[in-house]
Each structure stands twice: as C-alpha cells, then as structure tokens.
Amino acid sequence: MLLCCTGDTLDSPNRNAFPKTKTELLSYPQGNEMFLIAREALKNVGKWDSTYKQLYDKNPNKFCRGYGIFQYDLQHFKTNPNYFLKKEWRNFEKCLNLLLQELIAAQQRTPRLKNKTILNSTEKVFTAIAYNRGSVNMDGDFKQGHKNISTGKYYGELISHSLKSHYFSFNKNSGFFFF
Predict the structure, then answer these.
(1) What is the pLDDT of residue 176?
(2) Mean pLDDT of the chain
(3) Which H, E and C letters describe the chain, residue by residue?
C-alpha cells in the first residue's frame, strides 16, 4: 500500500486549480468527506516529514492536494471523485494505469506529438511537461512546468535528468519500460 504517497499543500494565491481553498473544496459535492481524507493524508505524511507535521499542527485548513506515487492532483476530484474518496492512490496498479492514461492524453493534445507511436527522448520530456502543466511549448527548452523551489529546476529539466539517469521510456502502445 502507498498510504503516504500524498503531498502538495499549496493554496491560493499560489494555486490556480480547484480547490484553491478549503472553503472551495467544502462547497463541492462530497467536499467535506474529501477534506477529511485530505487532512488525514497530511497527518500521515507528517509522520515522516516534519514540514507536513508542522502544517498539520499549525493550520487546520491545510490539506494534501496530490495523491498517489505519481501525484494525481485534487483538481481532478470533480471528474474522478472515486479515485480520491475510495483512496485508490494507495494501489500502485491504479496509479500506474492513471498515469499512462494521463500521459497519453497529454501527448494527444500536443499537435506535433498526436498519434505518434514512438517518441524520442526530447518528445518524451515534452509529453511529461504537457502532463504536468496541461500544455507545452515544443519550441522552448525544458524549463517548463512546475519549478521546484528547493532545487530551482523545472519539471521538464527534472524529467530530462531522470530519463538520462534511470533509462526508462514511454510510448502509448507499451507504456513504460526499462532498458
């Protein structure tokens, strides 16, 4: 089980996606139930990470917004509530299947990558960026997506490094494989 594969506690003004605040989550159908789960997730991560423990102890409005080993965002609660309410993020197979669906969707909404069956390493990174931020500038560099505050690196840069150092690949027909 992947009970503590949760995180991301950003709220407004640092967050643009649903739910920006506890109030916004509570106003949505089953939002109260989701808040209790999200709050419990923060408490659980706090057992291993002192920053999350401090957030839990000091701010009763804080809660986790990323779920599963691949951090499926709570903004998807509106379209996929069962993943969150049934705590499906604790199941690796469900997380992996969801990630693959999301990566394929990201590739398909990127015009230059749509319908390609094999991606080169640059295209793989751009697909990951599109997954992370919803879109990608393929004429740009890898400094796109979420910027990690502690490293100063962007999501695209981190994925590029990971692809180079861990030798894994993705395509829409066979999914991830190691070589």
Answers:
(1) 47
(2) 89
(3) CCCCCEECCCCCCCCCCCCCCHHHHHCCCCHHHHHHHHHHHHHHHHCCCHHHHHHHHHCCCCCCCEECCCCEEHHHHHCCHHHHHCCHHHCHHHHHHHHHHHHHHHHHCCCCCCCCCCCCHHHHHHHHHHHHHCCCCCCCCCCCCCECCCCCCEHHHHHHHHHHHHCEEEECCCEEEEC
pLDDT score recorded for residue 20: 93
Is the predicted pLDDT of residue 7 greater than 80, yes or no? no
Residue 177 has pLDDT above 50, yes or no: no
Cβ–Cβ under 8 Å, residues 69 and 19: no
Domain boundaries of the chain, sorted by first residue:
6-90, 93-178
The token pair at 81 is 């509530």
